[in-house]
Amino acid sequence: MDPGEENPTYFDESFKSTFGSLLSKNYFAYILFGYAGCIITVILFVIWRMRDYNRPDPSLMEYIDDEPRQRPTRANRHQTQARAGPVERAETVGGVRRRRRDGRGRNQQEVERQREEEVLDESGSEGEALPPAPVAGEGKMGAKKLRKLQEKEERRQMRQEMEIERAERKREQAEKEAMQKKLDELKKIEEEKKAEEEKKIQEEKERKEHEEYLKLKEMFSVDDEGQAAITSEEQSQNLLQEFVQYIKDTKVVLLEDLASHFGMRTQQAIDRVHDMLKDEIITGVIDDRGKFIYI
């Protein structure tokens, strides 16, 4: 073999002894895992950087807003803040610019807005809800966020309508109860008045019957002709009832026969019949022939 020529077997053995361990399967697996980790890290970094790409920058809204701005009031300011979402603050951590949400300011705005809604629902002095103030960059707002705001507004309107309906039912119930109470009072007054009138009528009737009883008692007392006297009150009352019942049963009676039947003078019988007609104990007429016709 020529000394100037190189031995290929020598180089192969030298290469294997130097790089043999590097060409093992475990080493290639480590290399693949390293590349995969780098690729995943790059993808996550790109996603994190582009997460606020489509979100409008509040600092540029005043320059691109062509519509006239309304004067900020308490109502539309809270509506604008509700539509614009939570305030984002920029801070630098480790040389990288990051944005974080101001959760405390968002919670405070939510509490104030709910408090104003409760005041509006209870007082009802503000009438219908004011239309939302136009916000720059509203067209760029995400559809999901806009849908949430719309659903929230619908729930608020529904709650307000339910409150109004509940107040209306309560008012109608109060009016109905007041009307029923007034009707009950009027009915009670009418019943008391009717009872008082019936009591007066009964007392008047008893008084007339007592007067008639006294007259008949006096009429049937002992006179100068020696007629029999009525000694007891019960007998006098029975005699009065017999006198009235006799007229009712006879219907048409001659006054002379009436006086003869009860043992009294004719003029006394005529006077007693007139008194009974006046007191409405009996009803009827006396004709020219001296007959009483009971009706």
From TrEMBL:
One of its GO terms (biological process) is cartilage development. One of its GO terms (cellular component) is endoplasmic reticulum membrane. It holds the Pfam family DDRGK. Keywords: Endoplasmic reticulum, Membrane, Transmembrane, Transmembrane helix, Ubl conjugation pathway. Residues 59-179 are annotated as: Disordered. Residues 104-117, 148-179 have a biased composition (Basic and acidic residues). It is found in: Endoplasmic reticulum membrane. Belongs to the DDRGK1 family. This is DDRGK domain-containing protein 1. It comes from Ciona savignyi (Pacific transparent sea squirt).
